[in-house]
């Protein structure tokens, strides 16, 4: 395999998680009678441009199909993040009724609804029919296609150039990262801005967040790597912010390189230096991650086996893609984890891919009263613990597995 950015041969393995079905391919009752498609889940490192990337087996159009089950608006904390983003961009860049905001991977419109509320014209680009329909229900125009240079040229030619383009938690999801990023340079106005938000590779490694690796994530990004990708596409980074979302993310601000007018903030060099000091551009930075993933897996398995021996009831909260990576890597089935609760109607009544653990409504927790509730989406643990604080009434405890096993009394 060659690097999807610079085409250099890939030889360095970051982590090998065996094989798994796509993490968002939730199963219906009828689908339980059929076999699932499993794909190898191995991640490699380009030692030329330092882009970390999956070994390609799964196709993006299969992963992001009409029944895609992730709706971002289910998380209260994510909605708050979206609201803050909209307000910050409007204030910082003076967006108003004459401006045009385009969000790539608009999902259910959770972000653009806040621009709409402030009178800023907004357009979403979202290829999955299920989430696009939800965004349209909020009154947001949606182009239901995959984004790249072809679509960017069509929209630009139709007078749809953008003052601001937002791409939150999508950059990792695209197989052709060069074509995708170049599309932003095409669709931006000469003085337009793009922001990319993505989980920071540095945090993924230091916090042992191997469960954020799944087939829908084709790339795992450092500022070192994405600066190179953006430069080749005709974009210049002029600022970067570190965010707490998804276990530690970066928000990168870019402008067209041919019309760059904004000065480059000191934050850019600071984060690049932090990555350099950690060794992001060295093979040694990546070679210990396999052992870290195995430690997290083994500690979680030990906990579940001990709970079973002691007769303690265990349930999980959050049918998140990251949880599916953990469960399938560890080989956990319904005997050790009988059910998972989720607030999303699109997942309730279905089964997790691979483990086939049923997804149920929250009332099941109050009925069963488990001694332990495993929070699979650990990145929103505080939100979940507040929501489920009532498990204190029966002496319940919360459990998280990443970055290390932790039992938290409710």
Radius of gyration: 21 Å
Structural class, by secondary structure, is alpha/beta
Total domains: 2
What is the name of the CATH topology of the largest domain? Rossmann fold
Query: For the record, what is the CATH homologous superfamily label of the largest domain?
Result: Vaccinia Virus protein VP39
| Count of individual helical segments | 13
Instruction: Tell me the number of strands.
Output: 17
Give the strand line-up of the largest sheet: 6-5-4-7-8-11-10
SS strand fraction = 15-25%
Main sheet: strands, sense, barrel: 7 strands, mixed
Based on CA inertia axes, which overall geometry fits? Answer: globular
The pLDDT mean sits at 95
Q: Please identify, by name, the CATH architecture of the largest domain.
A: 3-Layer(aba) Sandwich
Question: Which class of the largest domain in CATH terms?
Answer: Alpha Beta
- Ranges where pLDDT stays below 50 over 5 or more residues in a row are none
Share of helical residues: 25-40%
Report how far apart the termini are. Answer: 47 Å
- Helix and strand string, N-terminal first? EEEHHEHEHEHEHEHEHEEHHEHEEHEHEE
